[in-house]
Amino acid sequence: MVRLANLNLTAQPALSLVDDIQLALAIATETDLKSLLCGCTPALIAPKQVDHAEIQVGLPLAETTLDGLIRFEQVHCLLAGKAPVQPIGNPRYQNYPDLTLYHSGLQTLAERVCPQTALAILTHVGYSAEQAQAILHLPSQAWHKTWWWQLDSLGQLSEPFYRWMRLRGHPSGTLTLQYQDYYPETCPPCFYSEIQQVSVMVRSQTDSFANTLAMLNRARAGFNTSLAILITPPLSDLETEGFIRQQVSLYVLNSQRS
Fold this sequence. Notes:
Layout: H1 14-26, H2 30-39, E1 50-61, E2 64-75, E3 77-79, H3 96-99, E4 102-103, E5 107-113, H4 115-124, H5 129-136, E6 144-151, E7 157-169, E8 175-183, E9 193-202, H6 209-222, E10 227-232, H7 237-245, E11 249-252
Parallel strand pairs: 9-10, 10-11
Antiparallel strand pairs: 1-2, 2-9, 3-6, 4-8, 5-8, 6-7, 7-8
């Protein structure tokens, strides 16, 4: 099976190499996609921040075709196993009042969903089966409370916060899940993760820097994303610097001949 990590540059025609890479993208597993997201230069994300990832290939674009569009969950918040006694690297947070100094407004995680969907949502974001069942059977005025962590840009635990969950039942049998966060400094950006999109383009050895960058910029504008990965044969130092300065991450293929 063709894999990006196993592709070498050989004496085959440039178009054949591009076809091989596009095939590798089309059959890429979630593990392959995570390796691409985390193994490019500069890396787009830390490994522990990537949850589900998938790719569409051969997407129509004005005057050309985008080789791939990766959609993935970027994890921002993780459920803590217990209350944080001493947050990592931040001795300012010593006690409960410090940790819960501010609070968000009431947010809706899921609105009017069936119990099975509500259970799937809760377990996906990290609640145990026991915790999820406790939330789904809350009395109308009760709250389920747990400690969580925010992740920094390197995927490290950064700031703890206290999350309150409540349940609203409807005559139709559907459920609404709501929450409120209490935090020491920075309001969590989401409940668990955000969906991100990455334009992926394959560059042959004959493609110029200017044309490649123009196509990448059209793709980023067309799919409303600032993230881009260029899969490419080895580049000159100037080309490498040029792409990286234009916020393009590079996945450079092995130049050894088989």
